[in-house]
Amino acid sequence: MEPSDRDTNMRATTLKVLAVEVVAIAALWLLGSYFS
Amino acid sequence: MHWLDWLVVAGYLVWVVHDGLRRTVGSDKVEGYFLADRRLPWWAVGLSVMATQLSAITLVGTTGQGYADGLRFVQFYFGLPIAMLILSVTVVPFFYRAGVYTAYEYLEQRFDARTRALTSLLFLLSRGLSCGVIVAAPSVILSIVLDWNLTLTVLAIGLPTALYTMFGGVQAVTWTDVKQMAVIVAGVGAALVTLIAGLPDDVSLWNALHLAGSTGRLRALDFRFDLTQTYTFWSGLIGGLFLMLSYFGCDQSQVQRYLTARSIQEGRNSLMMSAYVKIPLQAIILFTGVLVFVYYLFSPPPMLFNPQHQERLTAGAEAPAYAALQTKFDRAHAERRDAAIAAVRARETGDPTATQRETDAFLRNNVELADIRSEAAALVQRATGDPGYTDVNYVFPTFVTTRMPIGLVGLLIAAIFAAAMSSIAAELNALSAATVIDFYRRHIRPEADDRHYIVVSRLATGAWGIVACIVALYAVALGSLIEVVNRFGSFFYGSLLGVFVLAIGTRRATGLGAFVGLLAGMAAVAYVAFWHPDISFLWHNVVGVVVVVAVGLVISAARPHRISPQPGRHSA
Lengths: 36, 572
Prior knowledge:
The structure holds two protein chains of two kinds.
Chain A: H1 3-34
Chain B: H1 3-22, H2 30-35, H3 42-53, H4 56-69, H5 80-89, H6 91-98, H7 103-110, H8 113-145, H9 150-197, H10 205-214, H11 233-250, H12 252-259, H13 264-298, H14 307-315, H15 319-349, H16 352-384, H17 395-403, H18 408-444, H19 450-477, H20 480-505, H21 511-531, H22 540-558
Helix pairs in contact in B: 1-9, 1-18, 3-9, 3-12, 3-13, 3-18, 4-13, 4-18, 5-11, 5-13, 7-8, 8-9, 8-18, 8-19, 8-20, 9-13, 9-18, 9-19, 10-13, 10-15, 11-12, 11-20, 11-22, 12-18, 15-16, 18-19, 20-21, 20-22, 21-22
């Protein structure tokens, strides 16, 4: 795998991880807001 | 405990020990014993990373936190996914390319033997003691809840783990971790099903969650920036980030996990598993605790969840006061139950005014019940002389042993065993690796063959297992020792991360700078911990890193004896 492929992979992984975290935090916020 | 539950626990122990001992094949070389010849698949390593982090006290403590405080504790893990991303592009390729067995070995390549020896020694002291605490904490709880002999419980957890880790090495640790994670997830799933099925027929889960939500237990996020609050969004995101960077990047018990992966990419993937799964998993475990709270709204809970204290109060001088409180508690629980049902009925009518009125009445009853429990806790504090008394860690085990069906009790006890054993096994293997690779092979016998090192490694694993059991027996006798051990670990964690930041992040840092910086960082954390005890421990790691890097860079600039090469960056 070329270095540029690795960089692209890591960028994609970073975006996915951050997206999952944001969704998880948003879900927790919604849970707390809805059931309050 | 029913004989069927005993059978499940015994079956689990036999299964895990047998599976661990099977891994002796292929563990006759040092690289096989400590790193599985770097041939493990990412998913097994990823599960092992998670199993190592999830100790028994995490399982029972987190559910207890969910019961008492709701989902707030999940914020502690908000820094973890970002930490995993940073580690994936920094330490994973550096350690992997440097071909090291231990994280501290890398520090000798980068700095000098002195820095390696000090960091490895700190790891051995801190983890050697904390391994004992990891054995002690579930042993105390299980022995009290199930009325087992404490010494035998310590040995039942510690010895089988030491046995399969001793002979099977890291292969045994990893493959038993995979099975232990399955047992833990099955156990938590079984508890969730039991809790939902245990709700009254005329109360839906949805309405029950509205009750839990009205007490604030489903409000996970706290955006206040307050250094004295332990769990806030910011302490979890920033303080938690530094803690997770330290734990996963500098603690040999975790570093050794991903060094066993087949490649750098697979090592990264194993960490990514935690990045994706850890927050939802912890939220589910906390949610289980919230459901225990909901369950006890409709079914009478014990006033005190620690049965030993309950017995002590009913038999001692406090017995009349305790009996009076118990009567008040029973009445208050019946009133809270009725109020909870009234709130559910009001919500079903769809009338917001009636719902608000009944919910307010329920909340008043809930506060009254909590106050009575506080009075009971004050009685325990008077009787035991322990001002920090809390029974949070007994909530989930008490629910399991008194309310779960036969067979599932055994599964949950096996899950608590699994959580403890998976963490202990990884730590014993890492302690052995640091002892043999960083000290024995480095300073005592540098030129022996693999057979010799394997014998020494197995003996070191067994010896650390015995140390863990002895520390555990002392820790249970001297309760405060647990706090001392945890505090000692927190002095060292952030500072160690600072040394690795100097090693990987800058070419200018010297061995002297790293060494003096490490000592200064630990002193700074000790100062903050003792002189500003109100500052949450999650910020200690930030202090440690900042001081080590700052002092390290100043010393390195003042005495720049050489620009050190960076192993790993240029090698294949």
